[in-house]
Design goal:
Layout (H helix, E strand, L loop, with lengths): L3 E5 L6 E2 L12 E7 L2 E6 L6 E4 L4 E4 L1 E4 L5 E3 L3 E3 L1 H6 L23 H35 L8 H7 L10 H23 L2
Parallel strand pairs: 1-2
Antiparallel strand pairs: 1-3, 3-4, 4-7, 5-6, 5-8, 8-9
Helix pairs in contact: 2-4
């Protein structure tokens, strides 16, 4: 059995948003508990609609599967998450005890986790590019100053010289390595959020 909660601007609803939200219908939407961190929000034919935030923009929906911390909006003015409603004292369980109809529930990733993953990947790309440019400029400087001969394989020649110190002599390589680590971390965060 799936437990369903109604939302609206009426004390008759499971969750009364209060009289201040004039664009919210008396019986606006319902939230059904599908499973752990999975809820279905359904617009009940309201006058001003129901929207779900997908991490980038608000999408008008008649029905959508949302996670506990995904934002939704009623009538374009009442904004909440299931998590926020629970914190306000509404008893919405995280998991229904009885077997629920979990028709291929797609739990959307947290918008905050998406943003963090994007920032980490962007930082990784910038570090990688900066490290390659820095290393190239340093190596070209050494070739011009005569410390290293310009062989067809400059990197091969430099590694054969015993004086190469990656940390102090070529910090660009360390910056590039940091960029690779940040890229891998960003991809891991993005993949973890999509599960």
């Amino acid at each position: 059995m799936i437990r369903v909660y109604t939302l609206g601007r009426s004390a008759e609803q499971s969750i009364d948003v209060g009289p201040d939200f004039k664009r919210v219908s008396r019986r606006h939407a319902e939230i059904a508990v599908l499973g752990p961190n999975a809820y279905r929000i359904t617009d009940l034919g309201s006058a001003n609609g129901t929207e779900v935030f997908d991490g980038h923009r608000w999408i008008s929906v008649s029905q959508a599967t949302i996670s506990r911390d995904q934002r939704f909006r009623l009538g374009g003015e009442f904004e909440a998450t299931v998590e926020a409603l629970i914190r306000q004292g509404y008893e919405i369980p995280a998991k229904e005890a009885a077997t629920a109809d979990t028709e291929s529930v797609a739990v959307l990733p947290s918008p905050m986790r998406d943003r963090i993953a994007q920032l980490v990947m962007l930082s990784g790309c910038l570090s990688l590019i900066f490290g390659v440019i820095l290393t190239t400029v340093q190596m070209l400087g050494e070739i011009r100053s005569g410390n290293v001969s310009a062989e067809p394989c400059v990197a091969c020649k430099i590694t054969k010289i015993g004086e190469l110190d990656f940390k102090t002599r070529y910090p660009g390589i360390a910056v590039s390595a940091l960029g690779v680590v940040l890229l891998i971390t960003g991809y891991w965060l993005a993949a973890r959020g999509s599960k």
